[in-house]
């Protein structure tokens, strides 16, 4: 057997560079590159190894470890989980900074290869700089915190362990059911240890995504239920995107007159102009989708994990006379909510349902109701997103302005606060790829870094990041990275002077305004400073301006589209209003006992709402 002597780090990057994947009949590199912030735990081993493979596995420098991992995750999501990136840091705060990103990837079922440095396997120099010592277990390091937020975890304590662990990590990230972050903790000394690796280990490999077909019995059950349906509804989740099933779902629904509602991850499966598209579902759903969900007799949920925002905390589908079919590649998701399980790839499942249900269609009354509700919701969206000439516009009005300026080549990116809910309700999608919102983990600070990842994945698209002042202040450093790498973003900063979304929730649950809006926080007598976001963005190398009102915003968006570098637009917005139309109940626990009458009233409403939950 021919061998090649390499350090563990050299073998790792050589293997990653040899990985390929087939997409639409074309072979491309599986890994776009590696985001890296070097420290003493990875610079001499992995850093030296990466230096020699820059032509085949580029290294990208970032400014924050969490943010660089967010960018890598955004890249994978924008590529439909078919192309990946890795992220490496030193042991210590660099590693722990990435744990939040790992949790985000885990919650959203998105792949990223995390390569944190680790303490010495030999323990000769212990305790080393940044080492957190555990008095009763010296085998533990901070990297063990990655275990609960990784789909695959290993600590490479000997260089030959790569031979078994690295293929498993990549297999996990490409598995449609178990997809998520894989973490390989790399002790800094082991990174530098040499081993005679088999040359065959580095043979280029073309990876392919599995498409498991449906079980015959489960398929018959689903077909029988759909054949009896008079008022069917489909819910499209993120799995439809990842299975390349958007066109199949669009054709399936149109042929049978079945309305389609979308989750946050599923939004964009259908263009808003599709006759069966009835908008978002659930807590942040359209009035059309939610009314149809309440009245439907059979619901076919495709590629969704049916989280609380989709189901209205299990109260939107409260009727026991409703049949729920969960078509999902993951068994864990397909058996939720007492559903009829159809565990399979979304495209494979839809294709077989399509063949079996040629003569199946919704009733004429249901089609007419769908058309009426769709028209009524379109009028509502137009009204709430129109420019009212206010000095402090609402989030909805800002969304309307950005949406009107967006072309078919635009992808909107967002993550946390009130904006994702308003976008879910109100953004009019041009089709797949036009909507990228991280809401599985609702992670403040994802927006700008995630937008960078989207732009790296789809450089031909105009990427518009919508972000509140709170998230911007948490993570903005990758603006400088976007300028450095030449990946242009348009960033719209909505400054409502605080955490407006949680302030509204605080009031909705009977609480008093406290510690959310800056005016309600503990401050010096002069109050919290007014941040000049445009000046800050300019200091990071961006083009930027501050505007007032919707008319000025629309003019600025034209200038931003014409710009060649990242362009930041900041404007003040009203923190109080949100779109009242549409929506569904969301369970947020309210105190049973309080001295405030408003809280007691909210608790009574909470108890009444819980009676509608389906268990």
From TrEMBL:
Task: Write the Enzyme Commission number(s) for this entry.
Answer: 3.7.1.22
Tell me where in this chain the Thiamine pyrophosphate enzyme N-terminal TPP-binding domain is found: 34-125
Membrane-traversing stretches: none
Does the entry feature the keyword Ribonucleoprotein, yes or no? no
- Alphabetic keyword roster: Hydrolase, Thiamine pyrophosphate
List GO molecular-function terms, semicolon-separated.
3D-(3,5/4)-trihydroxycyclohexane-1,2-dione hydrolase activity
Q: What class of enzyme is it?
A: hydrolase
Entry annotated with the keyword Glycoprotein: no
Q: InterPro entries, per this entry?
A: DHS-like_NAD/FAD-binding_dom, Myo_inos_IolD, THDP-binding, Thiamin_PyroP_enz_cen_dom, Thiamin_PyroP_enz_TPP-bd_dom, TPP-bd_CS, TPP_enz, TPP_enzyme_TPP-bd
Q: Can you tell which superkingdom this protein's organism belongs to? A: Bacteria
Q: Which CDD domains match?
A: TPP_IolD, TPP_PYR_POX_like
Thiamine pyrophosphate enzyme central domain location? 219-353
Q: Where is the Thiamine pyrophosphate enzyme TPP-binding domain?
A: 417-569
Q: One Pfam family name from the record? A: TPP_enzyme_C
Q: Which family does it belong to?
A: Belongs to the TPP enzyme family.
Protein name stated in the entry: 3D-(3,5/4)-trihydroxycyclohexane-1,2-dione acylhydrolase (Decyclizing)
Which species is this record about? Halomonas llamarensis
UniProt lists the gene as iolD
